[in-house]
UniProtKB/TrEMBL annotation:
Protein name as annotated: Translocase
Protein species of origin: Aliisedimentitalea scapharcae
Amino acid sequence: MLNKRLAVMIGGTAACALGIGFVMQKTIPAPQPVPVIQAQSISDPVIQTNPVSDEPLEIDGITLTSAQPDEDLIVARSTAPDQLPETPKDPKTPRLGCDVDLSAIAVDQGHVRIGVIAPCQQNERLTVHHSGLMFSAATDENGIYSVLVPAMSEQAVFIVDFANGTDMVASVSVPDLAGYDRIAVQWSGNSGFEIHAREFGAGYGDDGHVWSGTDTSATGQVVRLGENQSLNPLMAEVYTFPRATNTQAGSIAMTVETEVTAHNCGKDVSAQSIELRDGQSLRTRDMVLSVPNCSAIGDFLVLNNLVDDLKIAAK
């Protein structure tokens, strides 16, 4: 992976949105002819036999004969207004025991543990929203989902929504976030973006090289959010550097990289960065990348201008 890289410079902005709509139309069957029913006088009931079965057809003193003996006899009775069948309920109406719950708990290093309990939403796709960051996942067979999210704001608000329109909101204070710098990159589909941080002059493969596929003794860390097994997943990676506790001065080289694969070759793919630096306001940047054709499968594109390097001052 590390020996085949192509440096590219990307500019411009783009916004993309995908939507899938479905229209369902039910066909109303044409009305069927109703057999003609003849009724004899109640005062002088006459028992007649069915030409098919030779059995008498008598209901409450009224003898009925079908005008179409080769078809089933249809007897319609009126229903009083107070006996009308109950109207079916909207399937989105909450059922007993189907309440949903979202919790958000601040933990160490400026992270938040969010938990979803939705007993009637088993194995259902959901989307997590937080300060512009978005990623998709799914509940388990019990309707439960839990994830550790790097907070992007001290007063952190999390929204979780399901495809059926169910929304949940939770908020929590993250007071220690001020001591951390964070850089996030997010995308949709199988674009395969990765954040790479090379801390204080580290080269690729050194201990100071940090990305989601390594577990090194580097100061910072990268986490990946989202599950890419679903259709058109929303994915994100977040790099965290502990500025408040760091004692080393220098710079951290930041790059965003993607491998040319059969999923993205010859296509335009988009990504967005979200940066939280030295307690300042969040900064976002959009990018559209034209991936080379499929003859370049296996190569890596190194994007040097989507995020800026981190400058770390000495304590």
